[in-house]
Each structure stands twice: as C-alpha cells, then as structure tokens.
Amino acid sequence: MLRNGRSCDDSLIAKFLGGKRITYSLKDAYNTRCNISAVHFNKSLPNYTFHKFLYKYNQSSHTKKYEERRCKARETAAKRRNHLKLKERLFVSKNSNTQDNSNDSKAEKPDLDLNQYSEKYQEFIKNLALDDNEVNNLEMETIAQRDSAVWHFERRKRLTASYFGQVCHKMPHTSCKNLIKIILYSKIDTVHMKYGRLHEKDAVKYISNELKIEVNSCGFFVKKEEPYLGATPDGLIGDDGILEIKCPSSCAKFTPEEAIKEKKFSFLNLI
Question: For a designed S-S bond to 112, which of 117, 194, 208, 256 qualifies (C-beta 3.0 to 4.6 A apart)?
Fold first, then answer.
C-alpha cells in the first residue's frame, strides 16, 4: 500500500522503465509471464537464450559460464537422485504419519504366535532340502545365472556368499531388520557393478589363456547338508577348483601388477 505521492510516482515510472514493480494490467502481461516461465523450464540457458533472441548477438561470456555452472549443478543433482534408490519402508503404510504407534493399545498384533512361527520355520527349512539329483539339476537350470528367473527365485530363499560376511560379522545385539531388507528387496545396481559384469567374460578368457586352463560355466550351488546356504562361482576349474572374478572399475587403466603396486587391491601382494 503506497501512502505518499512520491512512492506513487516512482511506481508508475518503474512500470515502464523496468524497475522492481511489475505492471500486471498491461495487455498479455499474464501470458508473457507464463511464456517466460516455460522458457526457463525448457531451456538450460534461459537468460542467454532471451538475450540472443532479442538482440541478435551473444551475451557476455561471464553470464553464459554462470548459467552453464547452474545447469551442470542441476544435472549432477538429478543423476545423484537417480542413483540413490530410495528404499521402501517395510511394515509401515506410506500414508501413515510419522508417529510410532507400535506401542499403542490399538497396534496390530503379529500374524503368528511363537508356536505357529516355529512350525512355519521348520516347514520352510524342510522345503529347502534337496537331494543329490535336485542339487545337480538346479545347478544346470541356473547356468545362465543373472539371466535366469530360477536363479533369482532360488537365491532369494537362501543365504548366499554375497551376504555371508555381513551375517557372520553382525553383532548379537544388532537388529537384523535392515540386513533382511537388503537381502530380500535390494535392487542396487551401480556403475561399478555394471562394469564388472561387462568385463567378466574378458577376465575369464584372459585367465584361461594366461594360466593355460579351461574354465567351465556353472550355475547356483546349494549345500545339501545345509540347504539354506548357496553360492554362484564365476567358473569351475577342473573337479576341485572354482574361479571368482573381480573387475573393479578403479583399475580399468592398470595392469594387474600396476594395480597391486598402486595398492588398488588390499588383499594382494606381489611376490
């Protein structure tokens, strides 16, 4: 609200001289502002684009560099959001508030009591059991590994070598909830993991030629005596050897000897 004549005069002058106040009463003012917003949204360099369109020559390099930095920052933030897969919250409704009602008198009771849970546990372990023929058939059916639906299904029901270390090092007082969510529902697929899968066959071929050995493809192995344990080696060497491939992207430009000297591998030493 303008209270004096000087301010009124300044506001009228500012409308037509590009001052801080905007004239909302001129023709097409609303449409113009909508178009400006659309250009800002669609163009990565809006100020540079406006200036070049209106005046037919490029703006100063400082303005262009400033907008390029802002554009790069937005792209980096978008990539970070895409790579960080948000984990779905389990056992909690997405529409529920942040208050924890687990101790409320109206809280939902567990689906199973301890006796029923024990029975279901024994039934689950019993269903995992396989005889010698079933173990061999499962290994043959899953020889495609990641490209096999059976491989994914059978692997979810067992503790595999990928998570065995985390389970062994878990403290007794630490909750297993997060670890279970990772094992059952994790969909992490980083750039480094894709790099390793892409060059896995190259590594197998290199080892075969370098060591003069034959590496055979294999599927998912289940331990007969403890059917809740399983593993998928990257290859078999003879009747008593397995091959595990490590292709870290950080060593892409190094030979194995150079990578060890640069301490890219903490578990290897040159003899």
Answer: 117
Where in the sequence is the domain holding 247, given as residue range(s)?
114-155+189-262
- Asked, for residue 90, whether it belongs to a domain, the answer is no
Q: Are residues 56 and 15 in the same domain?
A: yes
Burial readout 207-239 (b: 16 or more C-beta within 10 A, e: otherwise): beeeeeeebeebbbbbeeeebebbbbbbbbbee
Last residue of a domain, one of 63, 81, 99: 81
pLDDT attached to residue 90: 43
- In the 8-state DSSP scheme, what is residue 146? G
pLDDT for 89: 45
The string of pLDDT tens digits covering residues 83-108 is 665 544 444 454 555 555 555 566 66
Within 8 A by CB and 6+ apart from 170, the residues are 176, 179
How many separate domains does the chain show?
2
Helix axes 29-42, 46-55, angle to 10 degrees: 120
DSSP 189: -
Please return the burial class of 257, using the count of CB atoms within 10 Å of its CB with bins 0-12, 13-18 and 19+.
exposed
